[in-house]
Design brief:
The complex is a heterodimer of chains A (581) and B (579). Chain A has helices at 14-38, 40-100, 114-123, 160-172, 221-271, 286-342, 349-380, 392-410, 429-446, 478-481, 503-513, 552-560, and strands at residues 135-139, 148-150, 179-185, 194-204, 211-219, 387-391, 414-417, 424-428, 452-458, 462-469, 517-523, 527-535. Chain A is α+β, with helices and mostly antiparallel strands. Chain B has 6 helices and 37 strands. In chain B, helix 5 (214-222) crosses helix 6.
Amino acid sequence: MPPTKKKRTRRRTLRQILGGVRRRVRRAAGRARSVWRRSLHLQVVTSTLVISVIVVVVLGTFLSTQINKSVIDSRTRSSVSEAAADRLQIADALTSETDEQPQPPDGGAVSLNPLDDVMDTVTGSSEDGSKKSYDVLILNPASPGKSRASGNVVPESVPAGLATSLGRNIKNGEYDTPVASIERLTFVGQSQPRLTYVVGGIVHELSTGQNYEVYHFFPLDAEEELLSNVRLAIVVVGLGLVLLLAAIAYLVARQVVTPVRLARQAAERLASGKLDERLKVRGEDDLARLANSFNEMAANLALKIHQLEELSQVQRQFVSDVSHELRTPLTTVRMAADLLYDAREDFDPMAARSAELMQAQLERFESMLADLLEISRYDAGAATLDLDSVDVTKVVLRAIEDSEALAERHGTRFELRLPHEPCMAEIDNRRVERILRNLLFNAIEHGEGREIVVTVGADRDAVAVAVRDHGIGLKPGEDTMVFDRFWRADPSRARTIGGTGLGLAISREDATLHGGWLQAWGQPGEGSQFRLTLPRTAGADLKGSPLPLVPPEIEMRRTWRGTMTPVLLPATGDGAAHDED
Amino acid sequence: MTRTSRLRAVAAIAAALIWAISGCTVIPVTGPYAVKDQAGGGDPLSKPFQRMIATRPQPTWSAEQTVRGLQAAMAAYADDPKVLPQYLTPEALRNWTPSGAVTVLDDQWTFDMGDYDGTEPVVTITLKAKLVGRIEEDDTYVPQSGGWERPFQLVKVEGGGYRVRSLPTDGLVLTRSDVDRAYRATKLYYLSSRTPDRLVVDNVRLRLKPTETYAKIVLERLLKDPTAALKGAATTSFPPGTKIESVRSGEDERVVITLSGSFDPLDLSLQHALMAQIRYSLNNNDVAKGRDIDVMVDGELYTNYRPNSDQSWLDNGVNTAYYVSRGAVHVMTKEGPGRAVQGPAGQPRPGYSDFAMSKDGALIAAKTSTGISVAGLTQEGQWQEVIQGAPADLTAPSWHRDGSLWAFDRKNKVVLRYDPASGRGPERVSAPELKGWDVTNLRIARDGVRVVVTTSKNAVQLGALTDVGGLKLGNVRVLAGIDSKDTIQDVAWRDDEHLLLLVSGKAGQTLNEIDIGDGEITEIPLKDPLWSVAALNERVLAEAEGEKGKGHKVIELNPDQTWTAKIDSDAGGPLFPLG
């Protein structure tokens, strides 16, 4: 038995289809909304279009109504008067018939009917008559042979309501009150109904008391065609007007928006550091003045930045020079102080204590000077990397080892979260160890004796080390300030380690030199976390970090509180914009 | 600019604006400029007409009113056939049919109701009126005279009112007003069977319809055969099975006629004949006058007509007038006397009378003491006797448009026809309906179809030359009768539809113009005693008694019905070719 091929058909349910459609529509709407929000041009044109459509519709409706009313009023007025004139003629003819009726000698009635003559006149059927634009129906059902019609109207053509009204008028003796209605009637031999103005009146023959119902059928074809043409013209003109206004709005908005857009693009380039960016100035209008002002602002900014750069350079040079200059006398002082320190036991206690203090402050002074010199090297762009492929975990362990003494003093315990595999990266061993040491010292100092968690993570492109303390934490905004030179979270707080205030600044410079990121996170009462991210290959661009900046427990707590979207604290510094967390 | 001057400027601009706006009229005064003339714009292919609206029998009506209502329903029957049966009892409905000839009565009627007092269940009412005419089923209108007196039997019905139980005659009974209102005297043009290049007019009364244009009614009738008067003598060029699909006004006011049927597009003579029939039948009934006519067959143009194109379908040959002076035939000029014609006829010859000119004016015939002679109007022409007989035994010769010469042999009671082209002698033409009649005049009309015959019994009879089963003078009917004491002096065709009849009697002499369509007689006032008449369309000439010593004279009828002497003395026997 041959194997049967079962065609697996993938059938989507209606709900899925609708969901797909809904998602597409939502995406399209989102895109449209985005385009709408971003385009001033589109907003102006759309607003103009909407407003002009409303105005044109309102005006067009009003105009159409007025023209309709005028045309129909005029037609009905003339029709009513024509019908009245005809009725008068018919009444005259019937009256003269009564007056002049010859009596045959044998007493029989005379069949001669003046209705024919007057109908000839009224309908234009006579030899010299011309065709009238309307048809007439005369009905006298009470008398034989006294009903006439012209054209193709028949008694059934009379609208029922009109006949009823006329019958009521006859009953009430209101012979001078004609009734009228506009109806769409289908006449004999015609397939399509025609819009017709029907006027019904009564001719009352006084001598015999007979009543003739006289109906006039005025076709409104011409008026209907005229009004259709007018309506079409209004629609076409209105549409043209709307499009014209849209085009005008487009052109005018373009005149305004284009310079604004150019200014925005120039401002963006200026913001990205292209200080030579300038706008072209055309004419003398407001936009030209805006361009002028922008150019002046850019020039002033460039000047100020240049001045500040120069000043900064001078300052850095000054610090560098001072540091270098201080080293020589400091070396001498140090030698002298070493001698004194070594001989302190021979001194009286006061002098011995002074020698110890001097020795300690000199060490600190030397350390500070070393940091200043290191900073100066960075400022001078003289810092270089001594790269080597190193297992970062080992570097971390060495840094922890160096920090253990201090940690013990503060009663702080380290918790290490290290990967099993080596985390190899091309780094300057000395500099990275210094960074980690600084981070650990900083954590110990601000950790309030609580546990410090050191985590190492790695992925294909980068390795990262996060140092988490559970101390006082950082206030909002301090996560960037911590890397400023000589910045102190709480100036009143006593230094226990005796740092120079340049440690984190140097660490950041070290990280930047590697093409890595050094970022901080902290919240008051929640402690803080510093994360060092380094590319595995020196010089490679970082696209993300293997470790989160915000500690996972904090993130989880936020989620539990109902915030579904993870809140990412602003990751400042290099690479902050690339942080995926 | 100061504030005052600014205000002034604004005020001036505002004033100018108001003036300009108020001065703008809705319809600006313009012109003069050339406008396109819309020929036939006022001709909607139909003429307005009114019609009777029939009313159902009312319970309150008397027997007389019921008969009037019945007659009104007859008048409206073609438009609304539902009302008329409501007047009739089932018995009457079974026995009576509306088809057949239409009886036309005068408008004034009287009713003889006998001893009717309104209580009898069955009433017989006699309607008395003057008979006016009859419309045959082939649409011929036959004028009639005399009284019409017929009984109608009515029965009373439950709920009041009457129904007609018996009608005196089948067919509709209409009044003159009904006919005037709903029928239209129409000239239809058919092709002459003997000379198919000439149209023959056929007068009919067509019933107008509110749902169709008059033009379409005319054309639909044209598809059918002519009336009995022209049966076998004229024919329609429309192929059998032709239908008129529509007649409408197209672009540029042209009339577009759409036909369906089997037409041979290569048969040009059919195209021309068909268009001639359509054109004359519409134009001569005041429809589509001066308008282009397009005939479409199956959506394609079959043939068309432009108003300025040549019209030869009613050609009557040359229209020169002649007269006889001292036995010689002369041409009558515009001023009157003219030169003698060439050939022997232009020379005085006693004993020659009753001259007749052929269609093209090339041959002339005259009665002589031994018969009828013919001569050519050339120098070489010679009188040649073609029909022999005593003058009293032969009527005056009459030319046919085909070139043959006709006369009636009173002695042998036969119609003679001599065809100069045949090279044979006169031949006898069958005329069974003239058997027993003493024919005094035989005149062939210029259309070559109709023949007027007068008899010694003072009857004017109209016949036609038919071609069914050989040439025959048939379809003879009495056109008009005159008093037996009067004498028909002369008869002449004026045109295809009118005859002039010169009658002398006790009361004097009368010249009547008879419409052969409806038999209407119009008397032309006379000033002098006449001897003979001749006519061609608008021109009517007569030989009249001249002043003393001057012999006879030839006079002409003016449009205002007065007579003017054309030739004062020694002139007579006016004649036109044919007729």
